[in-house]
Design a protein that fits this description.
The protein has about 300 residues and is of the alpha/beta class. The protein has twelve helices and eight strands. The protein has one domain: Rossmann fold (3-Layer(aba) Sandwich). The protein has an eight-stranded mixed beta sheet, with helices on both faces. Helix 3 runs antiparallel to helix 4. The model has no long low-confidence stretch (mean pLDDT about 85). The structure holds adenosine-5'-diphosphate and magnesium ion. The site of magnesium ion (MG) has 5 residues, from helix 1. Magnesium ion (MG) binds next to helix 1.
Length: about 300
Amino acid sequence: MKKIIFFGGKGGVGKTSCASAYALASAKSGDKTLLVSTDTAHSLSDIFNKKLGPKEKKIEENLYCIEIDADEEAKKYIEGIKKNISESIDPNVVEEIKKQLEMAYVSPGTQENALFDKIMDLIETKIGGYKRIVFDTAPTGATLRLISLYTLLEDWITSLIKRRKSILNKFEIASKTFPELEKKYKDDPVLKILEKRRIDILKGRKILTDKGNTGFYFVITPEKLSIQETDRSVKILEDLNISIEGIIVNRVIPETEDEFLSQRRKVQNEKIEEIKVLFKEYPIIYMPLFDSEVEGIDTLLKYSKILADQIS
Ligand SMILES: Nc1ncnc2c1ncn2[C@@H]1O[C@H](COP(=O)(O)OP(=O)(O)O)[C@@H](O)[C@H]1O
Ligand SMILES: [Mg+2]
């Protein structure tokens, strides 16, 4: 088991269930584990029957949970940038910048950026106190592409920084004659934001591509769309040289006398054969269809044992 584990896959396939079961298995093995979810639909609060929030809460021996509200994070992210800018820029231009930031907030990339920053921030601040952090949300394809464009992005941000510095330098020279210009170049907020962005992306890339410590599990169901989407995600991670720990095939119908279910099982088996070929380089883990929701510690313990028996 690696130190930082992400669970990815299409909505509804069983990410939250698998991540919780995995985290529980990790805790049972004696490792202090932090489980982080950003999902508000089928949440950790439902699974563990406890009210959870952004502050870590102990759930079981060695198991702690955090539930993050992705919308709230995006809002805080934008507020932070707005505050930073309005404190240090000419008030006449601030309104215009605020408007632009608000527009950025409704654009899809901003939500992802905010969440990505939060994930990286959690890793940085919490990893010291835990043996393992399990995320029930993986960075999306879009965020990963940003990371994969890192070299381009770095050149671009570096050139922006250079340009910004040259402007600031002119103010610095001018301020020798006009001291009131000093505030124009000291602690420039734009430069700070650019530099922080560059460092954040570099840090994120370093963490995600650290094959010794970080790994991804994909949860899929034996169905066409789920397989297709995961195939795309796996290729992105392979291109980025990110470690894939395994493919969890969820909701596999157990052997049965029932005619209807036997027929469904046959259809599933065909898909499972496809999965075996498509993802032949990775361990494939099978999770049976349960006769109940994955909720409550008893069901989760069963789920967790089946998972633990198949992972190393
Ligand atoms: N193996 C399974 N058998 C029966 N129900 C399952 C199984 N795995 C997940 N579920 C149920 O399916 C629903 C979606 O699972 P969830 O883990 O929330 O998916 P995701 O996080 O990918 O959206 C939940 O109601 C959960 O209880
Ligand atoms: Mg979920």
